[in-house]
Amino acid sequence: MRSTRRQFIKGMALGAATLALPASGGAWAAGMQAVRYGGSAWLGHYPAWLAIKTGYFKEQNLDVGWDSFGTTSARVSALLSGNIDMAVTAAPAALAVMSRGSRHFAIIGVPENFGRVEGLIVRDGVQKLQDLKGKKIGVTFASSAHLLVLNLLDQAGMKVDKDITVLNVPAPEMPAAFQSGQIDAAAAWTPQFNAIQAMPGVKVLADDTQFSLYRDYGVTPGPDLLVARRAFLEKHPEAVKRFLKAYFRANEQLKSQPDSAVAPLIELTKLSPSEQLEMIKGADWYGSAEQQGLLAPGSKFIDGLQKLAEMMVRYGQIDKAPPVRDWVDPSSL
């Protein structure tokens, strides 16, 4: 099982390093700096989408195009191949590519903390993790939820295959697998997390706040990172600064005026207004004032990312831990 997980995440990293995806195309507005952003309906991309729809980017003389990707690996590969300039990516995917020595991108911001909308869901009879001994946990391999499960088992003194079976279940299939009894517990993130939690006779046994690095560093199993292609960053430093100004303005709106962000976002997510509002409120949104504290030398957050990389090595997810600080560039903040 361990070698399978390593091969899985290695394959994701290799794909990210070699696959080139086409840009969205279209004519950019005359006189404005073009920026290509890679996103999806995941909440980590809300700030960029909101800044596009509200005109915050245009106010900064930026024409930001949106390229949608179904997987994190496809998004990272597009960034590395130069088809997009900016993106938000989960830290495990970035660390997997970093561990292979790629220097094509830099971490320039942290959008949010989504620790309350990801976790391990069990049936009501389960009181503690040990009650799952001999049973099956469904999780999407090479994901933040996967790291959460491995860490929870580690904390409980339990081992994969010996004490419990961990099955690779694609995120969209998780609710059906749990409901049908194919798995005894499900580790998922929103919206599957919300869908399973809404089923009768279930409860959340643990969420990301029980992750060991969260307690010490405020780092979840898969924190979202705002990254920029280094070539773009070096060629257009002022454009990146303007991008961040508009981006974190949208973050402040999500944080202080969540109701006002619902209408623009449902165009992206196709959620109902009530579901969308719940999603926005389920995350802690970081503003521009908090970025220096998150990314500065000696910050607890970056130390936590380094510990996360080391944990991924220990759990067989990557072969070596990259020096994370070499990829951090707070100069545009």
Could you describe the 3D structure shown?
- The chain is of the alpha/beta class.
- The protein folds into 2 domains: 33-115 and 222-327, D-Maltodextrin-Binding Protein, domain 2 (3-Layer(aba) Sandwich); 118-217, 3-Layer(aba) Sandwich (D-Maltodextrin-Binding Protein, domain 2), CATH 3.40.190.
- The chain is built from 15 helices and 12 strands.
- A 5-stranded mixed β-sheet has the order 2-1-3-11-4, sandwiched between helices. Strands 8-7-9-6-10 form a 5-stranded mixed β-sheet.
- Helix 1 (2-18) packs parallel to helix 4, helix 1 crosses helix 5 and helix 2 packs across helix 12 (258-269).
- The longest helix has 20 residues, at 237-256.
- The model is unreliable at 1-28 (pLDDT under 50).
- Belongs to the bacterial solute-binding protein SsuA/TauA family.
- Residues 1-29 form the signal peptide.
- This is Taurine ABC transporter substrate-binding protein.
User: How do the SSEs run, as a string of H and E?
Assistant: HEHHEHEHEEEEHEHEHEHEHHHHEHH
3D shape: globular
The portion of residues forming beta strands comes to 15-25%
Could you list the spans in which at least 5 consecutive residues all have pLDDT below 50?
A: 1-28
**How is the quaternary structure best described?**
single chain
Order of strands across the widest beta sheet? 2-1-3-11-4
Q: What is the name of the CATH architecture of the largest domain?
A: 3-Layer(aba) Sandwich
Q: CATH H-level name of the largest domain... which superfamily?
A: Periplasmic binding protein-like II
Query: C-alpha Rg, in Å?
Result: 19 Å
Helix content: 40-55%
Q: Give the terminus-to-terminus CA distance.
A: 42 Å
H/I helix tally:
15
Mean pLDDT: 90
CATH fold-level topology of the largest domain: D-Maltodextrin-Binding Protein, domain 2
Q: Helix/strand/pairing class, anyone?
A: alpha/beta
The strand count comes to 12
CATH class of the largest domain: Alpha Beta
* Major sheet description: 5 strands, mixed
Q: State the domain count.
A: 2
